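Researcher: Good morning. I'm working through a list of sequences from a screen, and I'd like to move beyond sequence-only analysis. For each chain I'm collecting a predicted structure so we can compare shapes side by side. This is the next one on the list. No need for commentary yet; just the structure.
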Amino acid sequence: MTRHADGRSGVGRRVLGQAVPALGVLAAEPLYLLWDTAVVGRLGALDLAGLAVGALVLATVSTQLTFLSYGTTARAAQRFGAGDPAGAVREGVAATWIALGVGLALLALVQLLCDPVAAAVADGSDIAAAAAGWLRVAACGIPLILVTMAGNGWLRGVQRPRAPVAFVIAGLSLSALLCPALTHGLWGAPRLGLVGSAWANLAGQCVSGVAFLVALVRSRPDGVGRRAFLAPRWSLMAAQLRLGRDLIVRSLSFQVCFVSAGAVAARVGAEAVGAHQIAMQVWNFLSLLLDSLAIAAQTLVGAALGAGRPDAARSIGVRVTGWSAGVAVVVAVALAAGAGVVPRVFTAAPGVLSALAVPWWFLVGMVPVAGVVFALDGVLLGAADAAYLRTTTLAAALVGFLPLIWLSYGLGWGLTGIWSGLALFVVLRFCAVLTRFRGTAWQGSAIPANRTL
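Model: Good morning. Structure tokens for this chain:
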């Protein structure tokens, strides 16, 4: 396992080997959602609104469980780095059992509460009815969505980053083909309208989820019975759930911040909320790029710590952070240079363009800082230092962002106040992760190299 933990030889090749496939997985879903939106948009405004509400509810339910991906990557990478590939795959088995159990529970809950939840989110009974019809079908894929998350986690951990790309793209390709066919009745398919989009989503999730399950079964070590290998191991599942608890709180901190920012922007006015939405979409897109490097750091640092090589883990962390910061600086320069051109790609409304100038220059300043934050987040996640990330992210939200955002609303600071709060949130996280990385406490969060399953 030395070649995986070495912080000096071939680090660049291994980082790219992890980051490029991770970027493919991260980008595939948003690209498909754009296609799905374009297909449904041709049905009319009501169906498009129903898709927006239904997809929002589904995404809100499923994205809270990203620990199945990030937490499993960290634990599997540490097992793999410790020379225990079978133990790394067993982390995947445990994560998959959690995904199936929690996924079935969420599916039942969504089916039970589908109508009242859609009515609470939607503005109008017609939109709520359309959203509920889409959600009933699409929600059947929740267990498979979570299985896919778990599969991404353990396959990255065992240094097989290309397999998730193939599985995810296979599923989304089928969805992309079926979506117009079932929605508009093309090529002899039945014309199902908005519900056709949901069936297309479900079909693609089945393909991806089953592919990950087959890969898990085929990874069974020689000499180990299938039943024994696939049996749930409660100690592993409990450890993963403890890690997941911290990551869920961290994820909720992000959501509270960004939802609050959107809510305050909406109260400033239509032009302000339009400008805020454009800036947030640009930020989300750039996050995908930086997240791919963070995932590479997570995988390689986890393997290094699992091999008992904290110096190699630090070296990898330093190098990946430097590269992430460099990429972020290049992006920031491009944003600054294109300030008079790029925003016009999104809108021609003079009022929105004028309002967008405020968050755009905040973006230019925030991106280089975020390059460091994202990379070091990945390093600390690779060390399974989720408790520290939970606490500091929550503190950055409660102490920095939320007071400023609501002061902005009360005092009428508009987008300047909103984006000042977002910038403060990023800066506080920067200080927290940099301080942690400079010490050694984060290295003690890893699974000991000699711990057996």
